[in-house]
Q: What sequence folds into this?
């Protein structure tokens, strides 16, 4: 489609995490704007700006799939400080900064002002690193580079906490107003990552611009959950499916792009491992948390039964775990869910997702009784509500989790 110049107004990239959807979307945006033959190493002004993710004809928003990318590329850059690794590191930061494009936040300047100090600091810190990289000679300068990179990672973690959950309707409306304006170059491109997380009102606003798209704009939506994308958006988009990468392909990518010999089965696993609060640790804590909750509930109501729930309850009982005790342990491990250490800013959502997976496994267990499934559905709804309360209203994770545990009276 790119070669023939017949790219439809809207594309929907679907496939599992780590299958290359966002990379392909950003490369499409570059090719659509290229002034020459769109070679991968083209040095035209349009391509240079797209590669640095500073092009004013590109909007990128939606929840980030791998916020750990900053940690991964920082590790790569410090291991082999050169222009290639610096480019990878800067791109990871720019993907975050793009979420705070003033175009997207028009009318929400008060909210954007909270992010302004971090945005300004990141720009300054990246410039300092570039200067130091070009002149690095002595070991002392290598140490200075490490300190600078660590500051960038910490600042980025703080900014990550301000990325809106889902796809905000105000961003879609601002994007639509921006889309009708003439591009600076050949073409404007809008990339909406994890578009399936948009709520009903946001989806309706999205449909309006997709139904009558300007000729100078192309929309690329990505999703790891095709079934969650509503039919009306599917009908207005050309579907491009991305296959899961094999273990060998994932290993090759990790080795080639990040110069890591770490053994991996898939790309998502590689990134998630880099989180200060890794998913495997979150899963263990979530098992105890859910086990303590359901064990207490099942003791009170004999109608609630099921093999998976019973196994989790036994696990929690064997560890003498209460839901509140688990919550306090997780809070201690994560610096009060990032309040005392910005590197753990995504830990609350990592833990919530782990809890949601445990609840889903119980709901899928054919031995789970109807009474148990009713309670699991109730808890699953509360998990989703906690994410909204935390992101939109800045509620305390500890208080949210305590109220969650109190639903079954397990606060001892």
A:
């Amino acid at each position: 489609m790119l070669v023939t110049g017949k790219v439809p107004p809207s594309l929907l990239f679907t496939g599992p995490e780590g299958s290359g959807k966002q990379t392909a979307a950003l490369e499409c945006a570059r090719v659509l704007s290229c002034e020459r033959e769109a070679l991968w190493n083209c040095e035209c002004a349009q391509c240079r700006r797209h590669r640095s993710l500073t092009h004013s004809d590109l909007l990128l928003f939606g929840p980030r799939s791998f916020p750990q990318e900053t940690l991964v590329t920082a590790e790569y850059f410090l291991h082999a400080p050169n222009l290639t690794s610096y480019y990878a590191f800067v791109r990871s930061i720019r993907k975050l900064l793009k979420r705070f494009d003033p175009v997207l936040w028009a009318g929400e300047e008060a909210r954007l002002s909270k992010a302004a100090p971090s945005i300004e600091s990141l720009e300054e810190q990246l410039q300092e690193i570039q200067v130091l990289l070009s002149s690095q000679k002595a070991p002392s300068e290598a140490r200075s580079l490490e300190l600078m990179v660590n500051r960038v990672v910490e600042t980025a973690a703080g900014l990550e906490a301000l990325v809106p959950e889902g796809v905000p309707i105000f961003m879609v409306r601002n994007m639509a107003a921006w889309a009708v304006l003439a591009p600076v170059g050949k073409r404007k491109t809008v990339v909406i990552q994890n578009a399936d997380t948009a709520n009903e009102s946001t989806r309706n606003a999205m449909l309006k611009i997709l139904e009558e798209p300007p000729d100078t704009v192309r929309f690329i939506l990505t999703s790891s959950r095709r079934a969650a994308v509503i039919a009306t958006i599917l009908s207005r988009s050309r579907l491009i499916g991305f296959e899961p990468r094999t273990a060998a392909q994932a290993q090759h990518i990790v080795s080639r792009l990040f110069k890591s010999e770490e053994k991996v089965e898939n790309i998502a696993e590689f990134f998630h491992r880099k989180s200060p609060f890794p998913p495997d640790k979150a899963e263990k804590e979530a098992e105890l948390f859910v086990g303590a909750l359901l064990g207490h509930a099942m003791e009170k109501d004999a109608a609630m039964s099921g093999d998976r729930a019973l196994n989790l309850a036994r696990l929690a009982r064997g560890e003498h775990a209460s839901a509140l005790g688990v919550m306090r342990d997780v809070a201690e491990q994560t610096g009060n869910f990032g309040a005392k250490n910005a590197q753990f800013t995504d830990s609350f959502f990592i833990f919530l997702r782990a809890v949601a997976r445990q609840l889903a496994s119980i709901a899928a267990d054919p031995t789970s009784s109807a009474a148990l499934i009713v309670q699991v559905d109730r808890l699953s709804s509360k998990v989703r509500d906690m994410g909204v309360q935390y992101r939109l209203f800045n509620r305390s994770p500890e208080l949210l989790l305590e109220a969650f545990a109190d639903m079954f009276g397990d606060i001892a």
Observations:
- The chain has two domains: 10-272, 275-406.
- The mean pLDDT is 89.
- Residues 196 and 225 are 7 Å apart (CA to CA).
- The longest strand covers residues 217-223.
